[in-house]
Amino acid sequence: MTSADVTILVVEDEPLVAMSIAAHLRDEGFVVQEAANADEAIAILEQDARVRLIFTDIDMPGSMDGLKLAAAVRDRWPPVHIIVTSGQRPIAADDLPDGSMFFAKPYHHAEIANSMRQMLG
């Protein structure tokens, strides 16, 4: 599987942060969709079966935060891999769905892309 075969869903409410990571992932060859909150992310997941990984911030407006989104994705779309990020609070591994990863902000784009490749095998 190459990066071009994989769709990544970036869920981030800060436009500049979302643009930055999405642009880097596209430069790395991934197909990227973007959502500003969990509600938009769920709508995209319901319509696009190509999404293989979500990269979500924890703190964002809407009906659920990134941790609740991660749990919902694990329940409804078990094959989708999950990376959670936050600049506000550290997260313990047992706060995340099994197989998920956490990155504190600020993160290095290259580390995120490498972790995505490892998760996707």
Radius of gyration: 13 Å
Would you count the extended β strands for me?
5
- The total of helices stands at 4
Q: Strand order, biggest sheet?
A: 2-1-3-4-5
**Average pLDDT value?**
93
The biggest beta sheet reads:
5 strands, parallel
Helix content: 25-40%
Keywords:
five-stranded parallel β-sheet, alpha/beta, 121 residues, single chain, 5 strands
Structure description:
The chain has helices at residues 15-27, 38-47, 66-76, 109-120; strands at 7-11, 31-35, 51-57, 81-86, 101-104. The protein has 121 residues and is of the alpha/beta class. The protein has a 5-stranded parallel beta sheet with strand order 2-1-3-4-5, sandwiched between helices. The protein is globular. It starts with 6 loop residues before the first strand and ends with a helix. The model has no long low-confidence stretch (mean pLDDT 93).
